[in-house]
Amino acid sequence: MAGCAVPTYRLHVAQHTHDGIDWAARVAAARRTAALEAEALRVVARRLVRPLPDNPTVYDVGCGVGPMSVPLAEALAARGGGTLVLVDGTPEALDAATSAARAVGSVTVKPVLADLAGEDPAGFAGSADLIWGSRVVHHLPDQLKALKRLVGALASGGWLAVAEGGLEARFLPWDLGVGEPGLQDRLAAARADWFCTMRENLPGAVQLPVGWNVALGDAGLGEVSAFSFVIDHPAPAKQVVRDWAVERLSWLAEVTGARLHASDRAALRRLLNPQDSEFLGGRDDVFMLMTDTVHLGRKP
């Protein structure tokens, strides 16, 4: 595969991830999102790396294009180095994350091409002192089993940190002047319905009827806690935020589809049409406000 510098650590060549989502098609959009999240994630990475032993091994599972891979590499480099293991099931995303993390220097970066739904991370690259996973566990059929597998890959005293939950990303004003006010909330409800359907259609899907703190305890972790962080780019925003908003709205329009009223679908067509006077990418009232929650626990 072009662009892959070190295939040594690859377990197999995964053609498709188990959830049926074409993540390769989202690489460009993911890079833009990563740039907007970078400042906040650097703070999170430093916080998570601070208590680790010297020369630690850190996993970034479901790393995507590397929004957290680079902050983790920077945090490790600042404290003398370590090993960063990047795991993803999409070759294009893994290559992007690997190149970006290696550019930091002073850290050994090992890419692993693997689908976490079918492979045990305990066999990837040795025991981890920290495993980070952002919005990845909820894409796995049996989430508690996945957590237990991640715990199994930790060294004694190691930490598992998963970014799950938080608050729905906001980027639209309440009244857009196109369609009925409150489009953002209706999109959020339709996206939640799509998410439930996506979960139900995963082969072997198992419900997780508890909060993440309880799930981490059930997976065998102690010292369970959580914290949240905010990504805030207020209006009037830079063009990169407007471009992100257009991509986000395009994705929401794609996954919500028939779940929306015809009038909302008509409003979306106007907002996503570069030739329309109401095109989202040209508006001054677009913003980006996201809140993610990190749940973490320690292996005894």
Automatic annotation (TrEMBL):
Pfam families: Methyltransf_12
GO molecular function term, any single one: methyltransferase activity
Domain (Methyltransferase type) ranges: 60-160
Record keywords: Methyltransferase, Transferase
GO BP field: methylation
InterPro entries hit by this protein: Methyltransf_12 (IPR013217), SAM-dependent_MTases_sf (IPR029063)
Source organism superkingdom: Bacteria
PANTHER family: TRANS-ACONITATE 2-METHYLTRANSFERASE-RELATED
Name of this chain's protein: Class I SAM-dependent methyltransferase
Lineage: Bacteria, Bacillati, Actinomycetota, Actinomycetes, Pseudonocardiales
